[in-house]
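User: Can you recover a sequence for this backbone? Please restate the input before giving your answer.

Assistant: Of course. Working from this structure:
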């Protein structure tokens, strides 16, 4: 256990700095955002996983009440300029929840009610996993970032698959599929297939070979390993099938993966996962913790990866990494992303974030003379 328990508690000075910087940016546009800005210092005094469980409990409870309809009406931005069709499904807007927030597919209806245009659940593995020892999730408030080394804790693909069959969700739900911890790389293809065959109720499927917090994933990112995994999944009928890239891959390795996107006619690419690298700009006390860094510090690099991928493949790109504002989402769309995802900004900006980003996107589209999100995709690629 690398971290100390006391490092889970955010210092008041860090919280004050966050309030002074983030909310001064003009990103608060709703009463709920202002309320969350008042509650956040209290929530940040709790360990991150405790806060995460509280959020899950509240959202799960919401799903069981008639209030869900009222929440949907308040948070959802309905405008045909935001709509797009992809993977054979209608996406009401391009802003989605990244894998990791709802690992076990408990909350898709609630997340859709908060105004997100799609949800990616997981990562899921063939068998249930407890993940790495705690503490394993750390806030970096001065940097508006997180570091996690969760280790793919999840209820297992069979349980997740059952939940997906139970829900009637108004937005597409993707499933992130990862390798089980105990499975060696040589038998990984069969392990991925076993997971897929239990979650076929998903609307699209993301092959995760880039998790930085579990053993054995580095070996999966070679061309040979990916060929075996993708062959197994395609033989099982997996579609729409996307692959998630690591931001640490050098350009030749990225090109190898992208050649397989074409070779296997994959339906898309997710760019990118969290990073184990640490920018020198990080100021928070938890910056040295081991794990994957997410949030604002990786925004520029993730956007460049989106641009790099979009220039080299015709397959749609989902851009993830550092999306916190409408401007961040817009940069990724203009760089070539068809959709964007977020997780860390949800923690820092609260439940109104999808509404605010979508409203901001409409303002940016109007400013630049675009009649839809589709018209802006790739203009800077």
């Amino acid at each position: 256990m690398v971290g100390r328990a006391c490092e889970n508690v955010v210092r008041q000075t860090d919280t004050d700095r966050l309030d002074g910087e983030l909310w001064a940016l003009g990103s608060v546009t709703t009463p709920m955002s202002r309320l969350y800005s008042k509650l956040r210092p209290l929530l940040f005094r709790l360990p991150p996983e405790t806060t995460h469980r509280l959020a899950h409990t509240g959202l799960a409870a919401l799903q069981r009440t008639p209030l869900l309809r009222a929440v949907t009406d308040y948070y959802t931005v309905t405008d045909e300029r935001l709509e797009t069709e992809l993977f054979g499904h209608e996406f009401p807007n391009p802003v989605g929840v990244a894998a990791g927030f709802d690992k076990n597919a408990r909350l898709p209806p609630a997340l859709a009610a908060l105004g997100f245009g799609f949800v990616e659940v997981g990562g899921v593995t063939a068998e249930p996993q407890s993940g790495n020892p705690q503490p394993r999730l750390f806030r970096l408030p001065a940097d508006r970032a997180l570091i996690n080394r969760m280790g793919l804790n999840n209820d297992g693909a069979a349980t997740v698959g059952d939940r997906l069959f139970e829900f009637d969700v108004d937005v597409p739900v993707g499933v992130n599929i990862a390798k089980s911890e105990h499975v060696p790389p040589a038998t990984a293809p069969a392990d991925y297939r076993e997971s897929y065959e239990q979650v076929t109720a998903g609307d699209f499927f993301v092959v995760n070979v880039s998790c930085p917090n579990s053993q054995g994933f580095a070996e999966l990112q070679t061309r040979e390993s990916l060929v075996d995994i993708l062959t197994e999944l395609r033989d099982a009928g997996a579609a729409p099938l996307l692959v998630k890239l690591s931001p640490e891959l050098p350009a030749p390795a990225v090109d190898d993966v992208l050649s397989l996107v074409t070779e296997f006619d994959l339906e898309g690419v997710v760019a990118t996962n969290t990073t184990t690298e640490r920018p020198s700009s990080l100021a928070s006390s938890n910056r040295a913790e081991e794990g994957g860094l997410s949030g604002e510090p990786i925004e520029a690099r993730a956007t460049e990866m989106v641009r790099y991928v979009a220039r080299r493949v015709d397959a749609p790109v989902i851009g993830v990494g550092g999306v916190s504002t409408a401007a961040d989402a817009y940069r990724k769309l203009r760089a070539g992303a068809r959709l964007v995802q977020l997780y860390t900004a949800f923690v820092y900006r609260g439940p109104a974030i999808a509404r605010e980003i979508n409203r901001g996107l409409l303002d940016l589209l109007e400013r630049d003379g675009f009649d839809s999100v589709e018209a802006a995709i790739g203009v800077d690629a």
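That completes the design. The two ends are 42 Å apart (CA to CA).
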